[in-house]
Amino acid sequence: MKLTILTLEGCMQSAVAGIADILTLANHVMQLRGSKARFTWQTLSLDGKAVRAGGGKLLAVDGAVSGRTSCDAIIVPGSLVDHLTAERLQPQYDRAGAWLRQQHAGGKLIGAFCSGVLLLANAGLLDGRRATITWWLQSELRRRHPKVDLAGDAVLTQADRLVCAAGPMSWVDLLLRLIELVEGPEVAKVCADYAVIDTAQRTQAIFMPLGYMLPQDPLLMKADMLVRRTGKAPITVRRLAHALGLSERTLNRRFRELTHEPPQAFIMRRRVEHARTLLETTTQPIKTIARTTGYEDESSFRKAFRKLTLTSPQAYRAQRSMRAAQP
Questions:
Q1: Which of 59, 73, 165, 269 is a good FRET partner for 276, with 20 to 30 A between their CA atoms?
Q2: 3 Cβ neighbours under 8 A, 6+ residues apart
Q3: pLDDT digits (tens, 9 = 90+) for 255-311
Q4: Could you give the CA distance from residue 12 to residue 181 in angstroms, rounded to a whole number?
């Protein structure tokens, strides 16, 4: 596998160095297993000159991009720049987008993570395709590129030789998926094991801070309060609509506008987020937490919790307790 890392001004230095480190380790592992070194990589800039990373360090590169760039896959790192700098760098992003369109048309695999996904979207590569991006850039992606099929909870998506990863450190997931696509799942698993990387399926929902979407609209703030104050009778869409002074039809329309989800999905998400907080901060039994968060039976609670977090309430609590105990 030959990988190209596209380095642009403001890019995340950790990803450029980290990718090289993991591939170096992978080559060592392959040699220990009796195989020839499989992985090579190159860092390219638009003009072949060194670029200044988001942290201010100057990054040397191996050359300039061209129409004849030879590689199996390309990674587009996220960037660490403010909005004014991003506007200044727009010509750079446009040139990079044109080159990426050319490479994708030529059959290359292309992966991006964090704000790098916006560059793919700007280039038109994600229109009509499933994609993900870190939770705090999702509203911007929706606003600027409504044709993208956004998978809001996904950490990783893959569609038509385009792989998107969510957060600033998700280049690890991205790299392993590209290795899997080129070299197969066994090689990717060996690389992950030697790097002690957790490859278990997960969702962004477990990382989203409680209430991150609420400042968007007062309606959501009031709805959130009503869902949390369930009382003895769990909140339903009908009861929520009545409490907000809206018809169910209007409630459904407003929630789809604000959250891109129906009210029932909002209710379930808020309940599960409340449950996460209780699991992390109390020793209440699972049955009690289920009842506190508005579930009449424990089975329904467990099903909803697993749907959003891809794990059980017990496993979630144990995982968080283990992390809290680490020095």
A1: 165
A2: 19, 23, 39, 40, 41, 42, 71, 72, 73, 74, 75, 178
A3: 988 877 899 998 998 888 888 888 888 889 999 999 888 888 899 999 999 988 888
A4: 24
